[in-house]
Amino acid sequence: MTAPARLSSGPLSPTPLSPTERSTVRRGARRARTERADLHAVLDAGLVGHLGVVVDGAPRVLPTAYGRVGDVLYLHGSTGARSLRESADAEVCFTVTLVDGVVYARSAFHHSMNYRCAVVHGAAREVTDPAEREQGLTALTEHLAPGSWDATRRPDRRELAATSVLALDLSEASVKVRTGPPGDDESDVRAEGEPVWAGVLPLVASWGEPEPCPELPAGARVPERVAHRAAPATPPTGDPTA
Fold it and tell me: What pLDDT, in 10s, does the model give residues 148-183?
């Protein structure tokens, strides 16, 4: 999925990835990425993350919208959501995973996925300052639907009172990425008989045609902030018959 447009990321922290015991990638360590830009790229390309928090002594993992400003993630939800209430000032884990393809191998054991995954650890902070709450909600809106914060009505006092905003620092995070073909055993590659197909089946996400609300006036124009995301990708240049 193409990374959505977003707010200016602000100043970037020079802190490397995997600075702590729990965020250091060990299994499949060769797939770990250590550049903070890789973390930002995964987060900017995703739309939904999963927030893990302990509620009544048991883990609870819920899909959560988010937005990024620099090295801070902003999460939001209803003030009535217990998972968000329990997350405030508590240790949480937030993950974003993008699947880029299914890897077919010559053996069942070596089937896999090509993916990009970011895992963030830390204490979520409830945002109470009005200016930062607006910054967080702007980031969330612009990450989901670029251009919409300025084009639509802002939240009113009642809506703001019903909305909880959490901030999660990105200083403690890890990124793993898998790309490429299967890692088959040499004996399977050289096995006699009918060859077993191996390779990658890419998974590509794309936007469909905008579907207007039935209550819009007839002939209402689709705004550019929506239309440009639905536009088909530019075809590759070169000989079309190649």
Answer: 999 999 999 999 999 999 999 999 999 999 999 999
Structure tokens at 46: 């995703």
Name residue 155's beta-bridge partners: none
Q: Where are the beta strands (DSSP E) in 26-147?
A: 32-33, 48-55, 58-69, 72-78, 91-104, 112-123, 125-126
State how far the Cα of 189 lies from the Cα of 107, in Å rounded to an integer.
10
Greatest Cα pair distance, the chain, in angstroms, is 71
* Segments making up each domain of the chain, as ranges: 29-183+197-207+222-230
Place domain 29-183+197-207+222-230 in its CATH homologous superfamily: Electron Transport, Fmn-binding Protein; Chain A (2.30.110.10)
Q: State pLDDT tens for residues 67-95.
A: 999 999 999 887 767 776 667 778 899 99
Question: Letter for the amino acid at 227?
Answer: A
Task: From residue 152, give the alpha-carbon distance in Å to each of 15, 85, 220, 222.
Answer: 37, 28, 16, 14
The neighbour count for residue 161, using CB atoms within 10 Å, is 10
Cα–Cα distance, 130 to 132 (Å, whole number)? 6
CA distance 71 to 10: 8
Measured between alpha carbons, how far is 41 from 163 in angstroms, rounded to an integer?
27
